[in-house]
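In the lab's daily routine, each protein ends up as an entry in a very long ledger. A line of letters takes care of the sequence, but it says nothing directly about the fold. The three-dimensional part falls to structure tokens, numbers that each stand for a local backbone shape. The outcome of that step, for a single protein, is printed below.
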Amino acid sequence: FTHVQVDEKQQPKENNHENDERPIKKVNVYDDLEQEKKESIKQLIQYAVAAQESHVRRKQSLISTIHHKTIAVVSLYNRAGSSFVVNNLAIALGQFDLPVGVLEGIQPMPKLYTFLGGKEKEPPFWKCWYHEVKSTRKVCKYLDREYILPLIHKDINWFFENVNWIPFIPLSDNKEYALGVAESLTLYYTADELPLLFVDLSHDLDSGFSKLVLEEADEVWIVLEPDLIQLGFMGERLKQISKLAKTNNLFTNINKSHPYIELKNLKHQLQKFEQYLDPEPLSIIPFSVEFLKGGNPFSYLDKTTKEILIKSLLPLIKRMGKEQDGDKYEGKRKENSF
């Protein structure tokens, strides 16, 4: 990553998507940088993002009663349900008027764009942030040098149910996808302007972008099913997540819980991994056949399934607010109850 002498005639054109369909090679660029170089590039990109007009109101100017944080959410294994937890919690937070966003990480089978309605429901001004960050550039002056850096333009957000959604859409049918270092950092720090940001990494931890998110996140939530046998084989996986994360705030959320499951046995099993995470789950989300009925991919928007979910999501909603304000969410829930 080097600075350049900027010639206006040679500057890349903004909003140029003519190369969007080019093949993407698998390149894990982030891992190949020395730590000192990583930190200097982080400072440069943070400066560049802060220098441009914000995509959202700055954290400092928003509601003073919420905790401003970015949370990486990981499925402990395939289909554990990180997307289910993130998407429905975000909508619940939006209904409580908390400023929240969801960034879908690089995944082999992304679903968020489809859940939002796809091409038919795209806002007229919306552009995929992943495409923008790969195709759009700007000149930034930093420490008496000029750099050509990635850019995400303002006013291209997808806002639905009081939530900012940032879906991942691959540029081609190629299953492998890579972002450059500056592109990854620009995408992350621009999304991080949202006071509450959830990054849904699903079960993928191999991409450089996923590793960047785990390194930068304030908290890491690990979603798992109450399967004692499968959990017993997850020691190395939990060790890997713990090693990648720079925060000590690693928590679990149990998804698809059944009444016949002995939760005390599950909690006992989690205590064996206490060196990697807090063994006490933040929430226990029940399984219901109602989640499989109907055509709404966001269960929280359905009257019946919302009633099933709200009790288990409420502890997570309260965590987003300051301790002294926790009761107001309970009160508002009762006001809006069916």
The longest strand covers residues 250-257. DSSP finds eleven helices and ten strands in the chain. Strands lie at 69-75, 100-104, 137-142, 145-150, 158-160, 163-166, 196-202, 219-224, 250-257, 283-286.
